[in-house]
Specification:
CATH class of the largest domain: Mainly Beta
Strand content: over 45%
Helix content: 10-25%
Number of helices: 1
CATH superfamily of the largest domain: monomeric porin ompg
Distance between the termini: 90 Å
Radius of gyration: 32 Å
Length: 305
Amino acid sequence: MAKTHHSNSRWSRALILGACGLISYSSSFAGTTSKNPGPVAPAEAVDWKTNTISPVANPMYFEDPVIRTEIRPIFAYHRIDDGFVTNGGHATLYALQLRYAITDRLAFIATQDGYFSINTGLGVDWEGWMDLAAGFKYALIDDQANQFILTPGFTYSIPMGSNEVFQGNGDGDLDLFVSAEKGFGDVHVMANAGFRIPLDSAFSTMFHYSAMVDYYVCQWFIPFVAANGWTVVSEGSTIGLDSEGYDVINFGSSGASGVTQMTLGGGFRTRLTDNMDFGVAYEKAILSPEGLTDDRFTFDLSIRF
């Protein structure tokens, strides 16, 4: 009997140890399963254009190649060079730009409008409405993998502004342009070039070109440097000046053929919210004749949808 009891005790211990081992293995397997439920779906790639910014300087002709829907109020304070026929002075512009992304590649753009005021150093002041300009742009190349976008487009300027501020003249003009941008991580290089072609030979044909480099430091600080140039390809016959009016006025100057005017400047944007950027730019004329421009401050608010 003692031998039988001893044998039963041995079997009982074996069964208990086996049960404990099975429970331990089951718990371990369950824990492994819960921690590794299966293949994890890859995270969605972030679009490199999310951290790009629109130009602040030369907003009417330096068009962003990125297709966006936005409203952009603009204020510019412009000092006139003392050597210009106005004997210096200053000008102010209040404008509102609109852009609407019809598709992810095609956008309607309204780039010029607003109220323009000129205060001359001669004690003569003019003010009135700007011409309206609108058109379309299309992202011909949008290469996400290589962080590159190329967007041609055009606008037509409707001559319905005020003659007092050198608007509403002739038959309007076309701006045929192409814009491009390349990303290098947090650094972005943007360029634009185009021809401003009047439909009336009394006004000047101009080749315009712009470049900007920005660096996304953080949401609150995105600094940039920018250069903007205008070369008169074919002079007009409206007024006897030796320079043109940069981005705001086509004087139709009769002595400006071949003249190049350029500004150099910089500034920053700050991303107030995911869809709202505030921008500041300062530009200084760097080539003679400076003509209409000594320097300019531009402020805008890019509200995206």
